[in-house]
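Quick start: what a row looks like.
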Amino acid sequence: MEAFDPRSARPLGATFFARDTRIVARELLGCVLVSDAEGARTAGRIVETEAYLGNDDPGSHAATRGVTARNRVMYGPPGRAYVYFTYGNHHMLNFVTEVDGVAGAVLIRALEPLVGLEVMAARRGRSRGLCDGPGKLAQALGVDLADNGAQLGDGKLTVYAGTGVSGTVKTTGRVGLSAGHELELRFLLAGNEHVSKGRTGPRSSGRRRS
């Protein structure tokens, strides 16, 4: 397992995230996400993301008649965590993008574990499949609703620039949506064993991403 030393890496600031959501989603691949939850450091390389846009994106939480209590964090400032709870048992970690006042966020769908694997395994209750899905990685990193709106790099969560993408970047439709699933806004490192097993296509339940 490759070691990661944040002392030799560059943390990503708000200016990285204050750009087109699709560009940020792609360029986050290969970057390293570090969590210091509960006094234990865990980290993983980002290998899969999904972009969620403004109110013209039917799969986005911003596809409403305006700002709501739930989607408010999506509207900025950029470089913050947007965390929500879904399906009764999963936290989902997103990073806010675009300029302040414009809705956008990138869902972190999968990580390649690098640091703190024993801690991740204890939180997940298993030693395999630690971060190959958005709910799994949030649990492994100790992310919950208390992190919603938190500034990245100013507390528990920090994102560091990667050293480049190894392999081919693949673009597909998004996973688990009843609308907007066909938009090719999912980015992943093709062939990486830690990418999620999710398949694109409509949800049979008819529920929007939540």
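That is the whole record. The longest strand covers residues 42-52. Residues 206-210 have pLDDT under 50 and may be disordered.
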